[in-house]
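FW: tagging you since you asked about this chain on Friday. Here's the raw sequence from the shared folder, copied in full. Didn't touch anything.
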Amino acid sequence: MKNNNKNNHTALYKKSILTTKEAAKLLKVGVQTIKNYIYQGKIKSFKTPGGHHRILRSDMPRQLESTFLEEIKNGTQEFIKTNGDRVDTHETYLLVLKALVKALEIREGCESDQPDFTARYSLEIAQRLNMDEDEKKTLELASLLRDIGKIGVSEQILGKPGELTEQEYMVIKEHPKIAERIVSDIKFLEDARPLIRHHHEWIDGTGYPDGLKGEKIPLGARILAIAGVFQALLSERPYRKAYSKQEAIRIIRENSGSQFDPKLANLFFEIV
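HL: got it, structure written out here
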């Protein structure tokens, strides 16, 4: 059986034209991920008379499947080069978590060249609130893992180019709880768990997963809610283009007091 699988995989490398399913098998990702790459221009394709995507083997990105391993390798080398023999446990955690998040982006097909500003803006808000160093470290860890629960959501929903159905949206709303379960047995993330679970709560109580309201939402989660949405608005999605910085600020301002803590939003506006 192993030989058959190996032969099939070798045969794919010899084919000049691939279907999306064959391309997905070759790169070890889901079919929806391949479609996302096509929509985003990361993979060139053409359509058959029946409307099906076909991909030239010569247009396939040869290193795409090894991006995750390269990210770990490069990040580790840079960390060692910068720090020498000095080992910072928190920095090591961040290094590993960033690699895991990159793997999630690759799976979703929404890997972006744009940096994730969520941690940066979250920490700047925390600085203005005079939060202590341990609280800031917890906030930084939570900012990286806030959407890790999407690994439990199907690629068809995550990469859907159109509007989600009510049922699909209900599935998406489960990702904070999935994320909390994923990190539940990791000791150093114990304080980050409530922030990860509640970063989609709204200040008016209409958010998810628990409908918490006002200051019942952990402070760190209220901070992440603002910084995370700002990042999301600036990022391209399968169903929309990225917003400009000015448009993103306007949207957050319009939802201050309903979705976002107005005091924290004002601090955010001062920063951006």
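FW: The longest strand covers residues 53-56.
HL: agreed, and The chain has 14 helices and three strands.
FW: great, closing this out.
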